[in-house]
Design a protein that fits this description.
Oligomer: single chain
Strand content: 25-35%
Shape: globular
Helix content: 25-40%
Length: 240
């Protein structure tokens, strides 16, 4: 399957710290690729570099046939990439409604699309006119994901969406990502919860020390406890 997103030899620095050391990453089109690794491996930096929030000092980033490494973040977003950062990054002083209006770059919110989102995240309908800053952590995460989904995207970049969330909310997120995948949207998802990764991932790429050190299918990694231990320092049994 051909990749929608390709990184080749990508290096990135944060200040004087060299974080990415020649990342080679392919994200197959229409499927979900999990980006896994220990804390500090470079996963968040990779997503932020793809979005142009941090600049690659070397290497190529290509979306389809379009080089994007030198493009500004708004241009990258307009090319069809939605981004859900680990920090959620909702506008706290604006209402849920206003947050979603700002995210709908192409014009008025599509009512059918909004109803589809409410089906996964009914709390957003309930708090439609409430300030985002008054929402719970889980509700803010719902809003952050809804912002990325309010228009159809070619690619979603999602950074640790289940971190610190209650199991019921995690279940809703899993169902949402499964439905997005059924619509053939390409997803690159960073996730520390290996159980969640094994449930929704098609492909897996594992990072260590700013490099990709493993490529394969997610179900194969989920079935191989020794490989899990070697790559991630854990096994699926620990999450049962």
């Amino acid at each position: 399957m051909s990749p929608l997103l390709t990184l080749a030899g990508v290096h990135a620095y944060i200040g004087r710290y060299h974080i990415l050391h020649g990342v080679d990453l392919d994200v197959p089109e229409g499927e979900t690729t999990m980006l896994l690794g220990r804390n500090g491996a470079g996963k968040t930096t990779t997503l932020r570099t793809i979005m142009g929030l941090w600049r690659a000092s070397q290497g190529a980033i290509v979306l389809g046939d379009m080089p994007i490494a030198d493009r500004a973040t708004p241009d990258i977003a307009r090319a069809g990439i939605g981004y859900v950062p680990e920090t959620m990054a909702v506008f706290s002083d604006l209402s849920v409604r206003e947050n979603l209006i700002l995210a709908a770059r192409r014009g008025p919110i599509d009512d059918d699309r909004l109803a589809w989102i409410f089906g996964f995240f009914p709390a957003l309908k309930r708090f439609w006119l409430s300030r985002a800053g008054t929402l719970s952590g889980g509700q803010k995460q719902m809003l952050s994901i809804a912002r990325a989904l309010i228009e159809r995207r070619r690619l979603l970049l999602v950074d640790e969406p289940t971190k610190g969330l209650a199991p019921a909310i995690i279940g809703a997120l899993i169902e949402c990502f499964r439905e997005v995948k059924r619509q053939k949207t390409t997803i690159l998802l960073v996730e520390q919860n290996f159980r969640v990764a094994s449930e929704i991932g098609d492909h897996v790429r594992v990072m260590d020390n700013g490099r990709i050190v493993h490529r394969g299918m997610m179900d194969a990694l989920a079935a191989d406890q020794q490989l899990q231990q070697r790559l991630l320092g854990l096994s699926l049994d620990a999450h049962q």
